[in-house]
From TrEMBL:
Single GO term (MF): nucleic acid binding
InterPro entries: RNaseH_sf, Tc1-like_DDE_dom
Limits of the Tc1-like transposase DDE domain: 2-77
Xref: Pfam families: DDE_3 (PF13358)
Organism: Amphimedon queenslandica (Sponge)
Residue ranges of the TM segments: none
Superkingdom: Eukaryota
Name this protein carries in UniProt: Tc1-like transposase DDE domain-containing protein
Length: 82
């Protein structure tokens, strides 16, 4: 996915859905180039989206990284790939 594709998902799906659920939620994304493009940043600010600007190279602050770790551990323990 490129920046334009991510922007379309953000604008037409993710943000409207999460804002509908709870307007006070904070939006968090990592520093992938498509997530931090100028167009995305300007759109988030213009639409007053409450988003958390994470520092570069900070996987410890990215909650999805913890979930990936748990998934990998589960596969190692339970599935035990050959």
């Amino acid at each position: 996915m490129n920046s334009a594709g991510f922007f379309e998902v953000l604008e037409n799906g993710l943000i409207p859905y999460t804002q509908h659920l709870n307007p006070s939620r904070r939006y968090m994304q990592d520093n992938d180039r498509k997530h931090s493009s100028k167009k995305v940043k300007e759109w988030l600010e213009a639409n007053k989206i409450n988003w958390w600007k994470t520092p570069p190279e900070s996987p410890d602050l990215n909650t999805i990284e913890n979930l990936w770790h748990e998934d990998k551990e589960y596969v190692r323990r339970v599935v035990k790939p050959q």
